[in-house]
Design brief:
The structure holds 2 protein chains of 2 kinds. By secondary structure, chain A is mostly helical. Helix content of chain A is 77%, strand content 0%. Chain A has helices at 20-53, 58-72, 76-90, 95-101, 105-132, 135-143, 148-178, 190-201, 205-233, 237-244. In chain A, α2 crosses α5 (105-132), α5 packs across α7 (148-178) and α8 (190-201) packs antiparallel against α9. Chain A is flat and about 70 Å long. By secondary structure, chain B is an alpha/beta fold. In chain B, strands 8, 9, 10, 11, 12 and 13 form a 6-stranded mixed sheet that branches. Chain B has a 3-stranded parallel sheet with strand order 5-1-6. The termini of chain B are far apart. The chains are: A mainly alpha, B alpha/beta.
């Protein structure tokens, strides 16, 4: 008896058959690798761009602003296609040919593209964090005789970090899901693997279902980690008051 | 109250599932299409010269013309549905389309999900396309990077073919369409691209002179058939008869000449028409007698 009139008989053996299982496992590994590497690189570049944007000097803040506006207004997929097809062509000294011939260049291009795409958003998040530090706190730091590096290390960064954490976390989850775009440039990540299985077996629902579960579970794990970090770094104001009295 | 709504909902769902499954069993697609006056025809748009969009933004290609001719003979209008290499079989299997001309080569695994009208309307095959003179034979492709369309059975078949000649396994990459694959071939990202001969020649365009089929040969036959949903022999027969009528009355030949004849848009060195073996039958087309 069937309730839903799905003209589809599920065959749950398919995802666990070779070579499909192998493709899916490689896909999961590559998805995690791409998400992890781009999270680190985009955080690094995003922070630098944010700091440049907060600079008083125009030679720093104008280029940073242009970078953010250009990157943010071009779809992420375009950046992937750019790094895969165009970027090696514009490199000098035959460097491009070396890249072309590199078997795993699709993965490199995917990481470059997602890094650029994500870094613009990260830089904006970091910048709002830096701006959210009350002026009075910085003035207090100056008056206690901290130099600029010490101000940043002891006052601005710890305060900004706490503001940044929640939006940064959700951006990183978004970036993790964006890794699926890499299928367009032949990187054999999880979404590519599901499409590949579908195109060979003509049965896509099973693997797509498993991939969906994987994306949801990993996103939830990431969200839980971020909440854990938030509570860990939370400043308990009541305990500070008690210490004072 | 809530419980009675739930029970009602279950009852309706149950009833619906019975009604619709009963309907599928009885009505042939042929009746449905004739009644509606429209046939949903699956075409892809990135495989010249078979199916593509021209400079004016219109659907064109050999399969577009042939598909339209079939619909005309059936006396119905065409509702074009865009498919790609990954969706074409699935759409036929779940009956989102009634017929599909999208360079579907006849393979056993596909035949389990769908049916083909007979005969196959275009006889071609897969080549390994590479820079002229780079490889002498398929043996040289061992350990090289080979590109295919995602959705092509070559992803598994090509390594198997190469394994017959050498123990070094190739590295396989799959692209979203042949144009991207050819760009990667031009840039040196891959050493060879495996696709049906006439599609590769059309995608390469002016650059076709610089490329060739490795070993000068087709390594896997690609007999294109009109795809129809599985288990509806009335519909499959009708399409087969219509196709053979077009072969008989010269419409097929006219379309073939327009695209692949010596004065056509993409002259073909091979004869891709469905025909019977020459030594026994002379030059007889593949048509069933009445």
């Amino acid at each position: 008896m069937k309730f839903l009139n799905l003209r589809y008989d599920f065959d749950w053996g398919i995802p666990f058959r070779e070579p499909f299982l192998g493709w899916l496992i490689t896909g999961v590994e590559l998805t995690i690798l791409i998400a992890a590497v781009t999270a680190i690189t985009s955080l690094f570049i995003g922070t630098i761009v944010a700091m440049l944007r907060c600079s008083r000097f125009k030679i720093f803040n104008i280029p940073a602003k242009i970078y953010v506006e250009i990157v943010r207004n071009i779809p992420g997929l375009f950046w992937l296609l750019f790094f895969y097809f165009v970027f090696p062509e514009i490199l000098p000294f035959g460097l491009g040919d070396t890249l072309h011939e590199f078997v795993k260049y699709s993965v490199v291009a995917g990481i470059l593209g997602l890094t650029v795409d994500n870094s613009a958003y990260v830089s904006d998040i970091v910048r709002t964090g830096l701006l959210s530090v009350p002026r009075g706190h910085i003035e207090a730091a100056v008056s206690t005789g901290l130099n600029r590096f010490q101000q940043f290390r002891h006052i601005i960064m710890p305060e900004a970090f706490r503001t940044i954490l929640p939006p940064l976390g959700s951006r990183m989850i978004h970036n993790f899901k964006n890794s699926s775009l890499c299928m367009a440039i032949t990187a054999p990540e999880l979404t590519w693997a599901t499409q590949q299985v579908e195109s060979i077996t003509f049965r896509g629902l099973e693997v797509t279902f498993l991939a969906t579960v994987f994306y949801i579970v990993l996103s939830l794990i990431m969200a839980a980690l971020i909440i854990k970090l938030e509570t860990h770094f939370k400043i308990d104001l009541t305990s500070i008051k008690e210490q004072k009295t | 109250m809530k419980r009675s709504v739930f029970v009602l909902l279950c009852a309706v769902l149950l009833l619906m599932s019975f009604i619709s499954s009963a309907a599928i069993a009885e009505e042939s697609i042929l009746d449905k299409v004739t009644k509606a006056g429209v046939v949903r025809l699956g075409s892809n748009n990135d495989t010249p010269p078979m199916n593509f969009i021209d400079e004016k933004g219109e659907w064109t290609g050999f399969e577009i013309d042939l598909g339209n001719a079939v619909a005309e003979k059936l006396g119905v209008k065409v509702e074009r549905v865009l498919v790609n290499n990954k969706t074409r079989i699935a759409f036929l299997a779940n009956r989102s389309i009634e017929m599909c001309l999208a360079n579907i080569s006849h393979t056993r695994s596909r035949d389990e999900q769908m049916d083909y009208a007979e005969p196959s309307y275009f006889w071609t095959g897969k080549i390994f396309y590479a820079k002229k003179g780079k490889f002498k034979s398929i043996k040289d492709l061992g350990g090289k990077k080979i590109g295919v369309d995602q959705g092509s059975n070559a992803f598994i078949a090509a390594p198997q073919e190469i394994a017959k000649h050498t123990s070094k396994a190739p590295e396989m990459l799959s692209f979203q369409n042949s144009a991207e694959g050819f760009l990667a071939l031009k840039q040196g990202k891959i050493d060879a691209y495996s696709q049906d001969a006439q599609i590769m020649a059309a995608v390469a365009g002016n650059l076709a002179e610089e490329y060739e089929a490795v070993g000068g040969m087709i390594w896997s036959p690609g007999l294109y058939g009109i795809g129809v949903p599985a288990d509806d022999s009335k519909w499959k027969d009708k399409i087969s008869f219509v196709l053979q009528d077009l072969l008989k009355d010269g419409t097929y030949e006219k379309i073939y000449q327009k695209w692949f004849g010596p004065k056509g848009k993409y002259p073909l060195p091979i004869n891709a028409r469905p025909r019977l073996p020459k030594d026994t039958f002379g030059d007889m087309l593949y048509i069933w007698p009445d």
